[in-house]
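Exercise 7b. Backbone tokens:
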């Protein structure tokens, strides 16, 4: 009987992060690297999401392109593009989202401490909790 382990991660160092005992049991490793999405891919995905929900006209085309360009330049992670567009729609407050709304949303997300903490590694989160505990008790 053979066991196949498949690990999915946003970083290339998943095997290196594992405990040595676990890593030694993995044996042969093959990495399959997926490239980040390009701007045109992100635009296509965002347009499809809007179309699927029947709100194609909720964003100006240049606003979608700007969101896609910012995300593709930063990470190529479509989840970030969806977060950015959701925040831009909130800022737009029911009107058609334009490039100013996307820029404001990007600024907000780039400086949001909650987003930074959600992206932190488990060790970083533990350190933050310890620091908060120390500050609270001093």
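Sequence design result:
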């Amino acid at each position: 009987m053979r066991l196949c382990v498949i690990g999915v991660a946003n970083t290339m160092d998943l095997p290196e992060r594992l405990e040595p005992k676990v890593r030694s049991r993995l044996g042969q490793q093959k990495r399959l690297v997926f490239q980040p999405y390009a701007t045109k891919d992100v635009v296509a995905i965002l347009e499809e999401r809007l179309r699927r929900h029947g709100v194609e006209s909720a964003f100006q085309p240049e606003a979608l392109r700007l969101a896609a360009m910012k995300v593709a330049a930063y990470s190529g992670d479509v989840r970030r593009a969806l977060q950015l567009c959701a925040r831009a729609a909130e800022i737009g407050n029911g009107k058609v989202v334009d490039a100013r709304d996307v820029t404001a949303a990007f600024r907000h997300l780039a400086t949001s401490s909650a987003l930074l903490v959600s992206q932190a590694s488990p060790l970083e989160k533990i350190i933050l909790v310890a620091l908060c505990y120390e500050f609270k008790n001093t």
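Instructor comment: The CA atoms of residues 92 and 110 lie 18 Å apart. The longest helix spans residues 78-92.
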